[in-house]
Every structure is written in structure tokens, then in C-alpha cells.
Write a structure and sequence with these properties.
Helices cover 28% and strands 25% of the residues. The chain is built from 9 helices and 17 strands. The longest helix has 16 residues, at 2-17. It binds NADP nicotinamide-adenine-dinucleotide phosphate. Residues 120-121, 128-129, 133, 135, 138, 159-163, 166-167, 186-189, 209, 229-230, 250-255, 258, 281 line the site of NADP nicotinamide-adenine-dinucleotide phosphate (NAP).
């Protein structure tokens, strides 16, 4: 079942990317447009019809087919299930979980920057690796599939240079079907890129703070920095200019914390693994706060099931201001 739905979601993501004649954000905000997945998709899916409805003030039209599920876009990354029709609950949940990411390119065009989604698999005491930096695998099998789905839905995946050195990840989509994202490494020190040097070499980009020449034919770009640190929003704007409308940030601590510090994360996904290290590397290192109200606050959040455990998914205000 998931495979069929997954195919549909990939199709939808591609469609949204090519919606050049799409009305602007404003007309969509309170418009009364209904987007019906085209007939071929409905037929391929072998599921009852699914209507995606863009409008928050107008009552959606009564579907002619009573089996129809209706979902309404409620702004940014929120989709409300208006009616489940005759969709199996698990199928609807699956579509609902990934639908927001199918529309990243739409929001990116509005914001003129890449949309950023950060993900960690962490223990119950908030560790993403042991003291020695070992992190494979803190999450479960389904989380791995989830991460690969996200890679396929996003245009780029980004990691810090230390994660590259420590984990030597390939950063490709292997556990599900779908396109490989561009692979971006943040860092200025020399690193061992051998795990990325496959046939899709041109899909690798290193973004650092120092000017230097091409290294092993990998595209290298230096962006202006402050105190040897790149700021999150300019990175997202640069990625957008390079044709990446969404980026999946897969850590580690410094990289993701920097983006959060810069208010340059749209969505945070935290896979909660039912274990405690009692030592190890924390998921986040942020400036010290004195009061609880100074904590990083999520505007919208929920917990979703990932295999035998849960994932926290929350939205952050992403505006790059201090
Ligand atoms: N459990 C999980 O989900 C998960 C996921 C990913 C990683 N991990 C673990 O996380 C650990 C690594 O985390 P980490 O915090 O040590 O390192 P990291 O975030 O992977 O990499 C840090 C490096 O990235 C570069 N960098 C990051 N942000 C930058 C910015 N804003 N401007 C310029 N450069 C920037 C710098 O590279 P240069 O020093 O080259 O300038 C910095 O030293 C590993 O143990 C890994 O296994 C766990």
C-alpha cells in the first residue's frame, strides 16, 4: 500500500515543482480552488479519490464521490483532514505525514530561499551519538526509510564536515524509490569525501568559509561568514539560487544547532529512540538561557508513529533574524 501511495506523492512533488502558471501565494491563501489529483494518478493509486483543497475561508465543495477524502491546506506546512472518506486510516495518515513536503517548492518560491527540514534520531536523554561519535543506528528501520523518503522529496541533503568524517555516509536514496538529492557538506577543513565520490559526483557541493580552488572536482563555494561561521539564511538563499528549493539537514550537533540559532530551520523532526545513553553527544548546543520562556518554541507540533516508536515534528519560525 505504502509503495503505491509513495509513487503518488513523488508524482505530486514533481507536479508542484513545475507549476509555473501557479497563482501567487495570496490568491491561494483565501482562494476557492480545488486541486484534484488528475485522473491518471487516481487510477494509478487504486485508492478512492483524494481532493486537495486550497482555501481556508470557503467551504469545500461536496465531493461527488462519497468515498473521497478531502484535505485542506491550512497555511505553510499544515494540512487538515476534512473528511477521510473511505480511505484506510493508515493510508490517509501516510499521505498526511508527507504531503507538507510535496509543497516545499511552492513555499520556497514565495520565500525565495530553500525550505529547511532538520532531522535527528536521538535517545530519550537527547543524545545523537556516543561519546566516541558512534551513532549507527540510533533509530529503527522505519526511521531509516523515513529519512530516505525525505531525501527523495527534498532537492538537497546537507551535513556538517564532522558527520562526513565520522559516518562516511553516501547520502543517497536506497531504502525507497525516488530521486537522489544534491549532497551538500558544510565545512572548510579538508575532509575525506571518498564515500560521496560515486557516479553522481556532480551532485556534491561543499560550502565553506574560506576561498579555495576546486578539490577533487567537487564543486566548492565560499560564502561570506561571521567569526568563521556561515549564517543559515544566506545558505538557504544560495541553495535556492542553485535550484534547490528544499534541503534536508541531517546533522550533526554543530550544523543543526547553527541553523536553529540563526532561525533558519522550518521543520524539526526528532525520532525518539527508546534508550538512554547517560553520556554522549547532545542533539543541540545553543546559547545558555536563564528563563524557560527563552527556550526555542515550536509553533505547531505533533508526534507521529515511526515503526514501534515516535517522531516529534514541529515548526519553527524561520526568518533568519537574531
Ligand atoms: N543520530 C543522528 O541522527 C545523527 C545525525 C548526524 C550526525 N550524527 C553524529 O553527530 C556527530 C557529528 O556532529 P558534530 O557537531 O561534531 O559535527 P557536524 O555538525 O557534523 O560538523 C561540524 C562541522 O561542520 C562545519 N560547519 C557546521 N556548521 C557550520 C557553519 N554554520 N559555518 C561553517 N561551518 C560549519 C564545520 O566544519 P569545518 O570544521 O570543516 O569548518 C564544523 O566543524 C557524529 O558523531 C555523527 O555520528 C548523528
Amino acid at each position: 500500500m505504502k509503495q503505491t501511495l509513495w509513487k503518488g506523492l513523488l508524482f505530486l512533488t514533481g507536479q508542484v515543482k513545475t507549476w509555473t502558471g501557479l497563482p501567487g501565494y495570496c490568491s491561494f491563501d483565501f482562494g476557492s480552488q480545488t486541486l484534484l489529483l488528475d485522473q491518471s494518478l487516481t487510477a494509478t493509486l487504486d485508492f478512492p479519490p483524494l481532493q486537495l483543497y486550497f482555501g481556508s475561508e470557503v467551504t469545500p465543495p461536496q465531493p461527488t464521490d462519497s468515498r473521497t477524502a478531502q484535505l485542506r491546506w491550512a497555511g505553510d506546512f499544515h494540512w487538515q483532514i476534512l473528511t477521510g472518506g473511505q480511505w484506510p486510516a493508515e493510508a490517509l495518515q501516510f499521505v498526511h505525514a508527507y504531503l507538507p513536503y510535496c509543497f516545499c517548492s511552492w513555499i520556497a518560491r514565495r520565500e525565495q530561499r530553500a525550505i529547511s527540514i532538520a532531522h535527528f534520531a536521538q535517545t530519550l536523554d537527547g543524545k545523537i551519538a556516543t561519546e566516541t561519535g558512534y551513532s549507527r543506528w540510533i533509530g529503527n528501520e522505519e526511521n531509516l526509510k523515513h529519512a530516505h523518503r525525505m531525501r527523495a522529496l527534498c532537492d538537497a541533503i546537507l551535513i556538517g564536515r564532522s558527520t562526513l568524517d565520522q559516518d562516511q555516509p553516501r547520502l543517497t536514496v536506497r531504502h525507497v524509490s525516488g530521486p537522489n538529492p544534491r549532497r551538500i557538506v558544510l565545512g572548510s577543513r579538508l575532509a575525506d569525501y571518498s564515500c560521496l565520490l560515486d557516479a553522481a559526483l556532480e551532485s556534491v557541493m561543499v560550502i565553506g568559509t574560506e576561498k579555495r580552488g576546486a578539490e577533487n572536482l567537487i564543486e566548492y563555494c565560499s560564502l561570506p561568514c561571521e567569526n568563521d561561521r556561515l549564517r543559515g539564511l544566506p545558505i538557504l538563499q544560495y541553495l535556492f539560487q542553485k535550484g534547490c528549493q528544499s534541503v534536508y539537514i541531517e546533522g550533526g550537533t554543530q550544523t543543526t544547532s547553527n541553523f536553529i540559532k540563526d532561525r533558519a530551520v522550518d521543520i524539526l523532526q526528532l525520532h525518539l529512540s527508546p534508550q538512554i545513553f547517560g553520556s554522549g553527544r547532545p542533539a543541540f548546543i545553543l546559547p545558555t538561557i536563564d528563563k524557560v520562556e527563552d527556550a526555542v518554541q515550536f509553533t505547531n507540533f505533533h508526534y507521529q508513529t515511526v515503526g514501534d516508536t515516535l517522531m516529534f515534528v514541529g515548526q519553527l519560525p524561520c526568518d533568519g533574524s537574531d
